[in-house]
Fold this sequence. Notes:
Layout (H helix, E strand, L loop, with lengths): L1 H22 L3 E6 L4 E6 L5 E2 L8 E2 L1 E5 L5 E10 L2 E8 L5 E8 L4 E9 L3 E4 L2 E4 L3 E6 L1
Antiparallel strand pairs: 1-2, 1-12, 2-5, 3-4, 5-6, 6-7, 7-8, 8-9, 9-12, 10-11
Amino acid sequence: MNKLIAISLLCLTAICVKAQSKNEPFRAYLYNNEYDVFLRINFYEQDVNVPGQDLFGQVPGYLGKKNNSFAWLITSAKINGDKAKLQLINDYGSEDLTATLTRRNDSIYVLKQESGSTLKVPNKGKWLKLPKTLEFKRK
C-alpha cells in the first residue's frame, strides 16, 4: 500500500512539473552547445541572481558563458505570446542591445539581436562575436 501511495505522489509531482513548464515557457535554463553559452531566465518573477555579481540584484535573467563569470544581464523582458522583447547590458555597463527571444516549441528558443551593440563573449583570451540569430535548447 505504501508503494502505491509513493508511486502516485511521484506521478502527481511529475505531472505538476510538466504542467508548470508549459504554463511558464520563459522560466528556463537554455543552452547553445556550439558557442557554450546559456540563458538562465525567469521573466515572470524576474528573480534571477547572477553568480558572483550580487551588485546587480535580481534580474529577469542573463546570458552567460560556460566556465566564465562574464555575463550579459537582461534588464527588461516583456512577454507577448511566444516571444519576449529584451533589453540587455554587459556586466561592465559599457554595451547594451535590444533582442527578442522566441519560443519555437517546448525545447527550442531563438535569440535574435535587433539593435545596439553586438553580443560578444570571452573565448580563449579573445572576444567572440555571437551570430545575430542564435538557437538555444531547453535543458
